[in-house]
Amino acid sequence: MLETHDEALRAIPSVESALKHLNSCALGGEHPRSMLTRSVQRVLAGARVSIQSGKHAYGSTFEDVRQSIMEEVEREVAALALRALVPVLNVTGVILHTNLGRSPLAAAALEAIAETAGGYSNLEFDLVRGKRGKRDLLVLDALCVLTGAEDALVVNNNAAGVLLAINTLALGREVIVSRGELIEIGGSFRLPEVLERGGATMVEVGTTNRTSLADFEGALNRRTGVLLSAHWSNYSIEGFVARVEIRDLARLGERYGIPVIHDLGSGALVDVDVLDMPGEMTVGQSIAAGAHVVTFSGDKMLGGPQAGIVVGRAETIARMRKNPLMRALRPGKQILAALQATLALYLDGVQSTRIPVLSMVGISLEELQARTEKVAVRLQERIGEAAVVRVREVVARVGGGAVPGSEIPSVGLELTSLSCSAGAFSAKLRAGSPPLIGRTIGETVLLDLRTVFPEHDSVLIDVVAEAVTNDA
Ligand SMILES: *Cc1c(COP(=O)(O)O)cnc(C)c1O
């Protein structure tokens, strides 16, 4: 029995012997030794801390402690493969899944990245004049054409777009915003904090559920720099509600010479008529309503790469472009290549079939039903009695902080394993190759094919069959 900390600490194996142990149980063969060493060190350091804090030492034997540490090392190394960035099958039915990379790119966008980023490009070179040129000119023209704005710029994400707009237009000044729009988006984007880091002072007006134009007007003073409106993104308020329309806010801004920033979030370029989007505006509609600056993401409803897009009045955008922060926030050539190719699909009018996000939203219920039933039959044939496969109605979502509350009627596969719990079944699916991410509901796992590319249906069947067979 181990009686003291020091005795217990001696039970911690050396890095060398832990690596030998991994070799002896044939784990870790696929990882470079340097990566294995780092994982082992992490586990051993954790064990040291836990022993020093009085956990798992007293009363157990030297062998117990050593064995439990070795098991921890094994688990850590087994998890290494699952930590790499790899493709997964998204069967959650959430189209813009924030945890799963938001919008998948169109084939044309992927080709554009491969073509321009694999070699040199005219990123900052003017081919007509033969000298240094500006970045992203064609992208900016396309954005202006598609939104009706006078000018545009591109940064790394919408959070950067909002930060740049605030920092340029309201540094050391006040930003008036409705209390009902002080949003937090997952991943710690909180509007009040972004305003503060942007160098502005936030002035909240109205109440959580109701804000009027008079509230904004009443807060105006010499220090006012910006009137801000932010999209609700990931929540909705129903009942006794009043919001200030962008059109009215823009008129107020015009009257007092104060710019209006509209953080539109998702930023659909076109009306997605299959979605019931009450109150949703396209970027073009916001510009037409008079917003000076509209900011939105490239990888939400637009369906392109992660980017922040800022469109608006020429003079305002020009000021933003001159902000020294611009250099820190600008995107790389891969992003510009993908964005340019994605926008070209809109210009050609083929977006609804060629941009994955839009085609996934647009799949008809009948088409999805037929496809899901086919997959169900093939799957049941493969797995026999090991699990029950049922086709049922489900609800898909846009997700990703876009079109809150939107529900898309969908069809899913309901799988019930006869030999393990739904949680354990889900874990096996996540360990598949590729990992499959579904929804666990009660004792079943739900798979919505709306978010799966049809050419991946066979792979999906393989992954499920593999997980079920491993069950036995
Ligand atoms: C999503 C969203 C953001 C953040 O956009 P990112 O591209 O994720 O940085 C900011 N504001 C609103 C209203 C959003 O919906």
Report strand %. 15-25%
Spatial sequence of strands, sheet with the most strands: 4-12-11-10-9-5-8
User: What composes the largest sheet?
Assistant: 7 strands, mixed
Bound molecules: pyridoxal-5'-phosphate
CATH class of the largest domain: Alpha Beta
Write down the domain tally: 3
CATH architecture of the largest domain: 3-Layer(aba) Sandwich
Please give the radius of gyration in angstroms.
27 Å
> Which of globular, elongated, flat, extended, rod-shaped describes the shape?
globular
| Distance separating the two termini | 39 Å
Low-confidence stretches: none
Helix content: 40-55%
Secondary-structure blueprint:
Layout: H1 5-10, H2 15-24, H3 33-52, H4 62-83, E1 89-90, H5 107-117, E2 125-126, E3 131-132, H6 137-147, E4 151-155, H7 158-170, E5 174-178, E6 184-185, E7 189-190, H8 191-197, E8 201-205, H9 213-219, E9 224-230, H10 246-256, E10 260-265, H11 283-288, E11 293-297, E12 308-312, H12 314-322, H13 325-329, H14 333-347, H15 351-354, H16 356-362, H17 365-383, E13 387-397, E14 407-417, H18 422-430, E15 436-437, E16 439-441, E17 444-448, H19 457-471
Parallel strand pairs: 1-15, 5-8, 5-9, 9-10, 10-11
Antiparallel strand pairs: 2-3, 4-12, 6-7, 11-12, 13-14, 14-17, 16-17
Helix pairs in contact: 3-4, 5-14, 6-14, 17-19
The protein binds pyridoxal-5'-phosphate.
The site of pyridoxal-5'-phosphate has 15 residues, from helix 7 and strand 10.
